[in-house]
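--- STAGE predict ---
source: upstream dedup step, 1 unique chain passed
mode: sequence only
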Amino acid sequence: MARLESRPTAEALARMATRVEATLASDESGFPHYADQNTGVWTRSPAGDWCGGFWVGMLWLAALVTGEDRYRRAARIWVERLRPRRGSDTVYRGLLFWHGAAIGALLHGDRMAREVALEGALGLARLYNPRARLIPLGDETGAMPHAGRDEASIGGVPGTTPLLIWAGREIGDEGLEQMAVAHANRHAEICVRADGSVNQSASFDVETGELRRRYTHNGARDDSTWARAQAWAMAGFVQAARWQPPFREVVVRVSDWWVDHLPADGVAFWDFDDPEIPNTNRDTSATAIAAAALLKAARLIPEREGRYRETAERMVRALIDRHLTPAGGEDPRPPGILTDGCYDRRTGLATRNELIWGDYYLFETLCALDEHLDPVLV
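--- STAGE serialize ---
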């Protein structure tokens, strides 16, 4: 398959930049969370919930792509709004402060973003449980029913691992990097199955760290492979592999599983084990996360470069052609909306919606394909 030409990626980037601009211009309070995919109206979270950093990350990327400083200024405003979360009892601070702040420091050399990212990292490190060798979900994980200091989730690997490693190297604290490596390794042990598929969650004894059970609380069944869990594993371990090459082995395991099980049309169903396939929900957000991860893996693992990049491009093409609302024409929807994200099928929450993390990862992937961004940097 030929690589995507610059024109389609540039045109899709323009659509998504229009969506960023519309969201910014609405000037509503709260962080964008999920939106009606027909009207574009956002449901917002006042403090950013677990995913507020993705909106700030989109602003940093918009500044990179357009060269317009107003997006950087807007990102700085939203970073300050995120700053109070530096003390939250949740591993998802990694997602908040990596995408919301550290990316601003890495891509733009922004001093304030660096300061806030370091605050987030140091606060996050205080949650580490040395007996369990990980940072638990914590008690402030938003609306998740399964949370607490005796619970872990594969979603706690992306963001958290690179944030701690980056922070450790920034301030010369080797302990932070060692903590990040232990955290990622422990999740590989308890969440990655022998065949490379991923279970989302695990429970453990707080005092001893002993594993009690593995399960998938957002999937079709407790033992199913929820698409976003697989994608989070790909994203988290490839971020770790950028800094720590031994993680490349687990990157290959989880990424090969995705490539081998991806539907022929390039967009994942919400759960790979849903018995109703093909008459069930897709999840464009999981697909976008996985595409971003595969582009990184293609750079870091030369022997898989062709396979991973081709698959990522096929997925992105499918998302652009079938799920990204167009600009102009007869379609009444706002342009640049990534439709058909499935937030939580089990509870029926936002099962065919625009999701801010899906937007972020597709935007990031398009930035990389259109050569505005070295994907391994983020």
